Amino acid sequence: MPRRTKIIATLGPATDPVEVIDEMLAAGLDVARLNLSHDTHERHRQRAALIRERALAAGQEIAILLDLQGPKIRIGRFKDGPIELAKGDRFIIDVNCPLDAGERERVGTTYPGLADDVRHGDTLLLDDGAIELWVDAVEEGRILCQVITGGPLSNNKGINKKGGGLSAPALTDKDREDIRFAAEIQADYLAVSFVRNGDDVRLARELFYAAGGHGGIVAKIERAEALANIDDIIQAADAIMVARGDLGVEIGDAELPAAQKRLISRARELNSVAITATQMMQSMIEHPIPTRAEVFDVANAVLDGTDAVMLSAESSIGKNPVKVIEALDRICLEAEKSVTRSGHRLNSVFGRVDEAIAMAAMYTANHLGVKAIAALTETGSTVKWMSRISSGIPIYGLTRSVATQRKIRLFRGVYPVFFDVVSTDIHEVNSKVIDELLRRGTVQDGDLVIITKGDRSGVEGQTNIMKIMRVGEHRILNED
Ligand SMILES: Nc1ncnc2c1ncn2[C@@H]1O[C@H](COP(=O)(O)OP(=O)(O)OP(=O)(O)O)[C@@H](O)[C@H]1O
Ligand SMILES: CC(=O)C(=O)O
Ligand SMILES: [K+]
Ligand SMILES: [Mg+2]
Q: Ranges for the Pyruvate kinase barrel domain (predicted)?
């Protein structure tokens, strides 16, 4: 059985050699992430072109996920290099301090509204929580703090408010420019950082489509506020990412496991897709094998029902960008063996014919015991519905659309297949579908397969047929 959970890896300096790209693809990479917090458009353009070219050379389509920087609030820079803060010290974050004029006592910030968002008694976390500041008072743009946890502090480190509540809008001017870039390189997914609500997602989509983009929107859940608006966000987006780095700083690391489980299961309930991200294989930046804790983390995300697991620094700047994908591959495959069938949507009412066919196919597949499901799909919605149901049966999405092939590569248990048969003869189409599965070695004579499709091919939302066929018999039928 092929691995169901999908692997996303961030591209960076460590993945630039073409042989590394080839090996990552061979190891089973599904989605390449470009992080716009780093590097130039030119660099990202080259990376996108190279990986698409090498994927095609290997006979596959890969999805590209472009991750916006978002309003990551940062401190400015220090005039004389890093400073050292000790517990009990006084320190000021001053919105009026020029960005390059930081000193031992005070530093500027990239977010001029910061002083309006914090008050006496708040806690600010710098550098992903390494430094903790208690806000004593706010006076004319100067946030007067006392150091609770000290340490070294260098240029441009991030600032989060414990418990959330920083109101910076999700899209900065840089993000708006980056969205045009995403449209230009035809990103398959656009990941929007620090969304607060559904409106942030809808605005990003509007800008992306207006710039000529077509891909899906991934809402990154990394603010406390997003948790309060989660249904609105899930419904506005095509997928969510549990962005555990920033989310952990906002809500507290101990809250993360429960939040991850809730987010993934809510996404599935609402027929959406979930990505689990950050520090999954952190030790493999340096080491050739993961820690036991990392093995458990990945396996638990699989058991939680995640569609994909994501690598950041592990691949982009790590020493083992290929080995880390191989490790994810084997851990996911093994964890998938202990996933049980869900009773998901057993009691729900379906609003659409194609949705009902998708559900009927999964119910039948799980209870009759078929070898594979082949769904002829234009936009991928049929296979998305199918893949929300836990199952060990592979779902092949057969489509002529390159964009759909790339998009559905993110969905758990779904495998894109290029298929471009135009025929009014139903037997001929069915038989070509089965021949395609035979060619891939996923079925053999005697196996049962389910085929779903519409009366009229090439029209979206038209799936209205479910056919159960036995491999081998398709040849006899064809001769009638
Ligand atoms: N393309 C790249 N070039 C150089 N370094 C990178 C690149 N991508 C990631 N990194 C490194 O890997 C680390 C983790 O990257 P990651 O993609 O997780 O950042 P992130 O969580 O999106 O946060 P941010 O948006 O602040 O970068 C970064 O801090 C950076 O040091
Ligand atoms: C991925 C990301 O942005 C985070 O974990 O914060
Ligand atoms: K980012
Ligand atoms: Mg983040």
A: 3-324
Verify whether ligand 1 is closer than 6 Å to residue 35 (CB atom). yes
Give the bridge partners for 31, in sequence order: 8, 63
Cα 110 from chain centroid?
27
Q: How far is the C-alpha of 72 from the C-alpha of 35, rounded, in Å?
A: 13
Taking the centre of ligand 3 as the mean of its atom positions, its distance from the CA of residue 35, in whole angstroms, is: 5
Residues 185 and 114 sit within 8 Å (Cβ to Cβ): no
**CATH number of the domain at 83-161, please?**
2.40.33.10
Kindly report the CATH number that applies to the domain delimited by 6-71+169-335.
Answer: 3.20.20.60
pLDDT for 419-464, tens place per residue?
Answer: 998 777 888 889 999 999 999 999 999 999 999 998 766 566 688 8
Per-residue model confidence (pLDDT) at position 3: 97
Query: pLDDT tens for residues 374-418?
Result: 999 999 999 999 999 988 999 999 999 999 999 999 999 999 999
What is the complex's ipTM, to 2 decimals? Answer: 0.91
Half-sphere exposure of 106 (CA within 13 A, CB side): 14
Q: Are 10 and 315 in contact (CB under 8 A)?
A: yes
pLDDT higher than 90, residue 164: no
Question: What is the model's pLDDT at position 445?
Answer: 95
Atom 3 of ligand 2, nearest CA residue: 243
- Domain extent listing, the chain: 6-71+169-335, 83-161, 353-479
- Token pair listed for 413: 């248990």
What value does the mean pLDDT of the chain take? 94
How long is the chain? 480
Helix axes 18-27, 41-57, angle to 10 degrees: 50
The number of helix segments (H) and strand segments (E) in the chain equals 17, 21
Sheet holding 395-399, edge to edge: 414-418, 395-399, 372-376, 448-454, 463-470
d(CA 465, CA 43): 46
d(CA 436, CA 295): 35
Position 202 confidence tier, pLDDT thresholds 50, 70, 90: very high
State which fold the 353-479 domain adopts: Pyruvate Kinase; Chain: A, domain 1 (3.40.1380)
Name the residue of 193, 256, 309 whose CB sits within 8 Å of the most ligand 2 atoms, as the mutation to test its pocket: 193
Say how many Å lie between the CA of residue 313 and the centre of ligand 1. Answer: 6
